[in-house]
Amino acid sequence: MASKQKTIYVYDDFSFDKTSLMGCLWIDVLKGEESYSFEFDKIWLERTGLKFTPDPELMPYSGRQYPSGKAIFGLFSDSSPDRWGRVLMNKRERMLAEKEGCKPSKLYDSDYLLGVYDETRMGGIRLKTDPDGPFLSADRGAVVPPWATLRTLEEASRKLESDDGGAIEKWLRQLIKPGSSLGGARPKATVKDTKNQLWIAKFPSKNDENNTGSLRR
């Protein structure tokens, strides 16, 4: 069986004045499993002088490189949602499948990676599937909410976390993007203050032993 291949163009948003192409993440899908390789852009390597890479497993040379002992390089797993964000994305997929009367599609690691809203993506990288296209995710409905909505987001996380019967569309709309870029297991969301600075709001969880909130820049 022939494998299917996807290409993700990876851009450096931390080294230079302007966002620059850093390389390509190659994804092969065979028998329902993804395998990854990465290749640095030669111009990026020249500009950085081969002095550093954003991942200790990636060496500063041209040619494809493969992760050792794990599915994907840490650079990309750090930029992907962890348990909470994946819970939201999976619930959204089930909700959409129910509306269309079909089975939910399997979400791969690359789907989670590309599903993160560009403005709130962590790790100092930006992604495209078309070098002439937008940075992903480009969903304008995913604009980071102001922190005046914290109470609404907290209530949404509580309702969604306690839902044992499936997806709740109202609450998913509140949380799917503000929380999908964030790692960790507990409910959380990204919000903006009045100066447009980003904050991470961590909400109470039904599994908490102590009632302690958190807000971080």
Which descriptors would you attach to this protein?
217 residues; alpha+beta; 2 domains; three-stranded antiparallel beta sheet; 7 strands
Blueprint (SSEs and pairs):
Blueprint: E1 4-12, E2 20-30, E3 33-40, H1 42-48, H2 74-78, H3 83-100, H4 109-114, E4 125-128, H5 150-161, H6 169-175, E5 188-192, E6 198-202, E7 214-216
Antiparallel strand pairs: 1-2, 1-4, 2-3, 5-6, 6-7
Protein name: HipA N-terminal subdomain 1 domain-containing protein
Concise structural overview:
The chain has 217 residues and is α+β, with helices and mostly antiparallel strands. It has two domains: 4-77, no CATH class; 79-216, no CATH class. The protein is built from six helices and seven strands.
Number of domains: 2
- Percentage of residues in DSSP E strands: 15-25%
- Quaternary structure type: single chain
Q: How helix-rich are the residues, as a percent range?
A: 25-40%
Mean pLDDT: 82
Count of discrete alpha- or pi-helical segments spanning 4 or more residues: 6
Q: How is the biggest beta sheet arranged?
A: 4 strands, antiparallel
What is the 3D shape?
A: globular
Organism: Oribacterium parvum ACB1
Protein name: HipA N-terminal subdomain 1 domain-containing protein
